[in-house]
Amino acid sequence: xxxxxxxxxxxxxxxxxxxGLKAWLEDEDFEVETVGSGEAAxxxxxxxxxxxxxxxxxxxxMDGNAFMEQAHQMCPGMKFLVYTGSVDYAPxxxxxxxxxxxxxxxxxxxRDMAVLVAAMKDRIERQRQ
Length: 129
What we know:
Blueprint: E1 7-11, H1 15-27, E2 31-35, H2 38-47, E3 52-55, H3 64-74, E4 79-84, H4 93-97, E5 105-107, H5 113-128
Parallel strand pairs: 1-2, 1-3, 3-4, 4-5
C-alpha cells in the first residue's frame, strides 16, 4: 500500500452500510477499515491513526458523538463526516468546536455515495496542504 493513500475508518452498526461505504471508498483508492462500534474504532485508532472517519450517530454502547470527541483527542487532525438516519441531527457544541459543521452531516440513504466520498477526499486533501 502507498503511504499517500487516505486512511478512513467507517463506524456504523449496520453491516450493509459498512460494506457499501468500504466498496465506494476503496474504488476511490482510500485505505478503509470498518467497525460496528465506537469502542472498536478507538481500539484501532490507538494503534494506527486515520485521516478521517465516517460515523453513524446511533451506535451500540458509545454513541457517535462520544466517539468523535475521544477520537479527536487521540488524533487531533482527523476529519469526521456524520452519516446518519437521524433527520434532526445537528453537531453538539463541542463537536462544532472541533470543526464539525452542518456541511459534514449526510442523511441516510444517499442516492449518490460519490458525494460523501468527495466530501471526505476534500477535507483530507485540504488538511494535507
